[in-house]
Amino acid sequence: MTPMKDGNREAKRTQPDKQPQGPSGYREVGCGTVTLYDTEKTRLQTVRYGRMPEKNKVTLHEQLEAECQSILHLRPDLTVVMLADGAKDNWQSLGTLDFGLAPDIPPPKVVNIVDFFHGAEHLKEGCDAIWGKASVETKAQFERLRILLKEDPKGVNKVINVLRYHVGRIKAPTRKKRIRKQLTYFRNQRHRMRYADYLQQGLPIASGVVEAACKTLVTQRMKCSGMAWKQAGGQAILTLRSLIQSDRWQRGWNLIKCAFCTPVTICA
User: Fold this and answer.
1) Same domain? 28 vs 99
2) Segment 131-174, tens digit of pLDDT
3) What's the pTM?
4) 64-75: pLDDT as tens digits
5) C-beta neighbour count of 7 within 10 angstroms
6) Three-state DSSP state, 53
7) Residue 35: which H helix or E strand, with range?
8) Range of the domain at 171
9) Do 58 and 167 have their domain in common?
10) Which of 37, 181, 225, 250 is 20 to 30 A (C-alpha) from 156?
11) Inter-residue contact 121 to 131 (CB < 8 Å)
12) Are 123 and 172 in contact (CB under 8 A)?
């Protein structure tokens, strides 16, 4: 979330059919990364993108799509891992990426993974609802289930079974509702939570690279005390920082500077 000069949050608060999200005057900046790993699970390179608030994050989607196309054009044999939290709009966007391969080239293997640490956060919320927040039992059960979720081939199913059992056992309406919410989350994301299998294949299971990009690309520069941004100015900053953090500054600047060069005539 970034403070905007034209955030229009107060106007939205006065509309009964609008539910504002986030602090007044803030809007969501879109961040995305494309990372290359070698067979030893070593991160080789990360390209970072940041876009100012935009409906459906259309431009960010186009940039990620173009980046993937350029890589797969050279290496169509690579496995594509789509890694995000459980937000529905993220998976809808990732699911529509067009890799642009020729019809005679087989499509790449695509693996969809929910970030393990986001999953663990939902597991913790479920444990808190079952055994009480910060209790000794909660800590022990959370650690046990977290390890199962990560290392057991049937881990997500075992987590679902635990949550389902306690939904039926617990009578308190509020606690039952909280557990049911997490049960629904794990059921919906089950097919993206086969972490033991992913680790065996040497695939990343955490979105730390994206989280770091959100922090270094956006937060550290655009959320300092007293700052507020307009669309154009904020995007200029994000574009330049993206180039620097992606090790593409020189090539990017060679393209950008052409638009800012003005011929000068020296008169005698």
Assistant:
1) yes
2) 999 899 999 999 999 999 999 999 999 999 999 999 999 999 99
3) 0.87
4) 999 999 999 999
5) 21
6) coil
7) strand 30-37
8) 117-195
9) no
10) 37
11) no
12) no
The two tokens of residue 142 are 């959370």
14 phi/psi in degrees, rounded to 5:
-85, -5
Token pair for 26 = 């803030």
| Number of domains, the chain | 2
The C-alpha atoms of residue 111 and residue 82 are separated, in whole angstroms, by 6
DSSP character string of 132-200 = -TT-HHHHHHHHHHHHHHHH-TTHHHHHHHHHHHHHHH---HHHHHHHHHHHHHHHHHGGG--HHHHHH
Tokens of 165: 């059992």
> Tokens 């699970």 map to which residue?
41
Q: Are residues 31 and 133 in the same domain?
A: no
Beta carbons within 8 Å of 73's beta carbon, 6+ residues apart: 100, 101
How many helical (H) and strand (E) elements, i.e. helices and strands, does the chain have?
12, 6
* Phi, psi dihedral angles at 62 (to 5 degrees): -65, -40
Label the pairing between strands 2-3 and 110-114: unpaired
Q: CA 70, CA 238: separation in Å to the nearest integer?
A: 22
